[in-house]
Write a structure and sequence with these properties.
The chain is an alpha+beta fold and 124 residues long. Helices cover 38% and strands 19% of the residues. The two termini are 57 Å apart.
Length: 124
């Protein structure tokens, strides 16, 4: 998984920047041990970065304005289960049951047409 691309995309979305950093400013994913270490992380004026907390499900966005004043924002994250099926789609289990029902109906129709199916069999 390309954590650098994810971090850059996340940073661009959260800060409104285009996410393109110059070659000299490019950094990888950086882990820190808590908020104090994130606050102490040095940035150049005009730079921003995503810092991942190594001890908790938290990440920080640290930004430094043009005059050198930095801010650090904290965010919690958690893994989510993505539903790959589009809305209104049936599960494989539901499809298999429906397929079995259709096969059973076809068999019954064929038996009725051939005169092999009686009302007594329906009652069973």
């Amino acid at each position: 998984m390309d954590y650098n691309a994810i971090a850059q995309s996340l940073l661009a979305g959260m800060t409104g920047s285009n996410g393109n950093m110059g070659a000299g400013n490019k950094r990888g994913v950086i882990t820190v041990a808590g908020l104090n270490e994130a606050r102490g992380f040095n940035l150049n004026p005009g730079e921003s970065i995503v810092l991942i907390d190594a001890n908790d499900d938290v990440f920080y966005i640290k930004e430094c304005d043009e005059i050198g004043k930095s801010t650090t924002r904290s965010f919690k994250y958690e893994e989510i289960e993505l539903d790959d099926a589009p809305a209104g789609a049936v599960s494989k289990k539901e499809f298999d049951k429906l397929s079995g029902d259709v096969k059973e109906l076809k068999t019954m129709i064929k038996e009725i047409a051939d005169g092999k199916h009686s009302a007594k069999q329906d009652a069973q």
